[in-house]
């Protein structure tokens, strides 16, 4: 060992590796390994998102990875290897989507649109399920920030019908993330007004939530039920939706079907209790503006 050799801090050495992997994203020969290594580091390098966004050609390389998978989704013949590789690229996109310094630019570049073809897929194979779940994770990272800009952007896209489709027919985990995204949109005043503006929008949401309750009565999941109840509770904050829910709230939410499922979940029990209380009193005036929810 050379005692005169300067000791380089591990952190500095790690950063050099990060920079090297980012450079390697630019070459097809080295990209796959760089995607894997960087995706492992996204939780431990706080400024990875700005490093990715501001480095030359990096976002273009990630988009290239995403677009290169399109031919494998229709007809559906995505392999596990292809799915793992593109999901590493999506994990880095999620990193960029969730960082306050890069989030706005990410939206302004319309990058979520590149993920929507993956959310349209219906194949139940594991590679496709992993692809949908990881894509939902990117949108979930956006809505988790509770920023108005995010909701405004998403309402101009097809994310609500895409989430509703997955809520109806996805795996439990995908359903949970999709319902979380819908919940976050509803919790925003603009999102709630948008969904309750027309009978068609409200009834589509209410129909899917109702189907989910029926399914949950057969195969109970406290994690998924929590988001479903929160969506119903938020809908009941709108006067016209509240009137409609008095007619269409599933009996399973009123008759104790989920008592055992919720025995250790005080927050969801409280939300369900508040929902039922909100629906007790008829004749509450309708919310301002918008269309009646009666068909």
Describe the structure.
The longest helix has 20 residues, at about 200-220. By secondary structure, the chain is mostly helical. Mean pLDDT is about 90; it is low at about 285-295. It has 16 helices and no strands.
Describe, in short, the structure shown.
By secondary structure, the chain is mainly alpha-helical. It contains 16 helices and no strands.
Helix and strand topology:
Blueprint: H1 10-24, H2 28-41, H3 48-54, H4 58-67, H5 80-98, H6 103-108, H7 116-119, H8 126-143, H9 148-155, H10 159-169, H11 172-187, H12 189-195, H13 199-218, H14 222-235, H15 239-248, H16 266-278
Helix pairs in contact: 1-2, 2-5, 3-5, 4-5, 5-8, 8-11, 10-11, 10-13, 11-12, 11-14, 13-14, 14-16
**What is the C-alpha radius of gyration, as a whole number of Å?**
22 Å
What are the low-pLDDT stretches, counting only 5+ consecutive residues below 50?
A: 284-295
Give the proportion of residues in helices. 55-70%
**Which structural class best describes the helix and strand composition?**
mainly alpha
Shape: elongated
**Spatial gap, N to C terminus:** 81 Å
The fraction of residues in strands falls at under 5%
Count helical runs: 16
> Based on DSSP secondary structure assignment, what is the total number of beta strands?
0
Please summarize the sheet with the most strands: none
Order of helices and strands: HHHHHHHHHHHHHHHH
Q: Could you tell me the mean pLDDT?
A: 92
């Amino acid at each position: 060992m050379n005692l005169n050799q300067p000791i380089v801090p591990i952190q500095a050495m790690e950063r050099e590796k990060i920079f090297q992997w980012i450079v390697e994203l630019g070459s097809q020969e080295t990209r796959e390994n760089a995607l894997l290594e960087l995706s492992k580091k996204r939780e431990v390098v706080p400024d990875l998102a700005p490093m990715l966004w501001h480095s030359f050609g990096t976002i273009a390389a990630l988009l290239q990875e995403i677009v290169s998978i399109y031919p494998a989704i229709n007809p559906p013949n995505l392999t596990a290897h292809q799915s793992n590789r593109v999901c590493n690229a999506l994990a880095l996109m999620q990193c960029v989507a969730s960082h306050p310094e890069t989030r706005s630019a990410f939206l302004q570049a319309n990058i979520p649109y590149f993920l929507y073809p993956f959310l349209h897929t219906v194949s139940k194979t594991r590679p496709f399920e992993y692809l949908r779940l990881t894509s939902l994770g990117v949108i979930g990272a956006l809505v988790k920030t509770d920023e108005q800009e995010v909701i405004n952007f998403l309402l101009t896209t097809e994310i609500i019908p895409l989430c509703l489709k997955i809520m109806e027919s996805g795996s439990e985990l995908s359903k949970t993330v999709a319902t979380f995204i819908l919940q976050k949109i509803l919790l925003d005043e603009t999102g709630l007004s948008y969904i309750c503006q027309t009978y068609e929008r409200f009834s589509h949401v209410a129909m899917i939530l109702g189907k989910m309750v029926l399914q949950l009565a057969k195969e109970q999941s406290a994690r998924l039920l929590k988001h479903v109840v929160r969506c119903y509770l938020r809908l009941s904050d709108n006067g016209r939706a509240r009137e409609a829910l008095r007619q269409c709230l599933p009996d399973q939410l009123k008759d104790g079907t989920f008592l055992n499922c919720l025995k250790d979940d005080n927050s969801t029990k409280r939300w369900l209790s508040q929902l039922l209380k909100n629906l007790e009193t008829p004749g509450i005036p309708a919310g301002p503006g918008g269309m009646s929810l009666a068909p």
